[in-house]
User: Fold this.
Amino acid sequence: MRMEWPGLKEAVASCVDCPLHAKRNKTVFGVGDENADWLFVGEGPGADEDAQGEPFVGQAGKLLDSMLAAINLKRGKNVYIANVIKCRPPGNRNPAPGEALACEPYLHRQIELIQPRLIVALGKVAVSNLLATDASIASLRGRLHQYRGIPLIVTYHPAYLLRSLPDKAKAWADLCFAVKAMGDLQSGKNGSI
Ligand code: URA
Assistant:
C-alpha cells in the first residue's frame, strides 16, 4: 500500500474488506499530528467512537487524555492516536484475527506516513498485532521493542485500567519509561535498540 493521506483516508472510509463494515456507523481512521513523534495505538472503536468517528472519545479516552496530560502531551500536538481496527466489533468483542489482518495495511501505512519516533501500544490487542506475540502485557512492559524498526513500548489499555486500579501505578511507570525513551531517542542515545 503506497497511498498518501487523502487516498488512505478515503480507502478506510469506504472499506468493505472484512465483515465489520456491515454494522459500523462510522469508520475511525485515527486523529492527530500527522508528523507526530508519539503514536498511541489502541484496539478498535467502541460505541462512542463508532458514533463520532474519532478514536478514544469515551470513558477510556478520557483516561487516555489524562495519561497524556500527565506527561505533558495533548491529543493532536506531536501525538497521533490510532487503532488496530478501524470499525467497531459488535458488542466491543476483540477483533477476530481475520479482521485484524484485513485492517493491518491501513495502520501500517499510517505508521509509514507518520514516522513516529516511538509507538506506545495500549493493551493486548495492539501488542499482539504489532509485535505478533501472545505474551502478556506484564511480561513485555519496561523494555523497548520494535515495530518494523520503530521503537515500541507496551502498556495497559486505558479501558482495562478503569477496571483495575492497582495497575494504574504500573501504567504510570510505563509512561515515565516512555518519556525517558523519547528523550534518549531525540538526543540520539538509542544505543539500546
Ligand atoms: N478503545 C480503543 O482501543 N480504541 C478506541 O478508540 C476507544 C476505546
Remarks:
- The beta strands are 31-32, 38-42, 79-83, 118-122, 145-147, 150-155.
- The mean pLDDT is 96.
